[in-house]
Structures are given as C-alpha cells and as structure tokens.
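Researcher: Let's try something more involved. This one mixes different molecule types, so please make sure each is placed in the same coordinate frame as the others.
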Amino acid sequence: MPVLKYSQTQPEKVSDGIERRLVHTDSLMTAVLDLSGGPKSEPDPFHSHPHEQSCYIASGKVLFLMEGEDPVELQTGDMFYVPSGKPHAIQLLSETARLVDNFSPIREDFL
Amino acid sequence: MPVLKYSQTQPEKVSDGIERRLVHTDSLMTAVLDLSGGPKSEPDPFHSHPHEQSCYIASGKVLFLMEGEDPVELQTGDMFYVPSGKPHAIQLLSETARLVDNFSPIREDFL
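Model: All components are placed in one shared frame. Result:
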C-alpha cells in the first residue's frame, strides 16, 4: 500500500536535531522533517538545488530566508516555496518544529 | 515573498466542507485542504488525474482507498502517495481534518 504510517516508521537521522521520513513517486517527493534542539541563534547556511520546493509548517516556528527577500517568520499552517536554484535557508525559532518538504523532481540524494 | 500565511489568507471554498489554500512553483503545487462535516458514512467517489500526488495528514483521520489496494486508515503525521493516473478516494473519518496535498505537475484546474 502506498502509505507511510508515522508511528510505524523509523526515521532517518539526517544530522543532530533532524529526523526525516519520506515518500515519493516518479517526480514528486514529500519529506517530513522533525527538527529539535531549538531555538537557534542564527539561520542554517543558505543552500540551493535545481529541485523546486514547497514546505508546509506542520508545527513550531521558523524564520524563512530567501535571497533577495526579507526574512519572514512562519508558524503552524503557513507555507513557503522555492523556485529552482534559488538560495534559501531556515532558522528554527521554537524548541522543535515539523516541516513537510516537497520536491520536484525527487531528491535522488535523499534516497 | 514566496510564502502563504494561513491566518492572513482567505481560503477558496471548493465545495461544502472543503476549503483550500495553495502555493505553487512551475511544476510543484501544495494545497492545504480543510475538511469539515465528518465523519462521513462512505468514501468520496474515486477519481484519477495524470498528476502525481502525495499527501500529508496534518490533522484528523481519513480512510485512504486506491484501486487494487486494501483501504487504510491514516491519521495525523501519516502520508499517502498516488502514481499518475491511479484511481483513488478518501473518506473523512473524523469531524474535521486537514490534508496537505502535493501535485506534480501543477493542477492547472485549481488555479
């Protein structure tokens, strides 16, 4: 069955304070990121990728930064999106947060 | 700024019991669906589309049905995904639910 049950799935530990669970089809990937260890005093480094990205803030609070734009504080229910190749970053503003990150094409580097 | 703030955005009323807020890039769309009027006694009609789809259950409980698969109950934190063209449906099992639906390519019919 093409589902992922959160409580029955072991996350991948991406780094200290980041756990990831993901699903994908041919051209679409959705990754649930559980962040901990916040609040952080500064943003993570800017990064970019050819993949288009959208993100839903499922819980917590983050600062979203994108090249050429004013930083904006986002919380549960809010979304951001990133065109192909655009440098962006986040800063965790709450103790924990959950982000639902979507990519097209899929992030082969996550598999 | 490429963000959508939930509390500052008026939803589109898709139908009785379905409100939608969405963002998109060229090839990726994310739609937050707020469902109400549940629990329902039967699933919505099966439907299909060429767009690949993934979905994160942000709150509530739904039954996910896909052609050729056993129905599966999903709740907050769970995900499902749908290959291009595959018939699928959901049934709202809680009073309300929030689904984060992702599509690639974008649903031009939602714009």
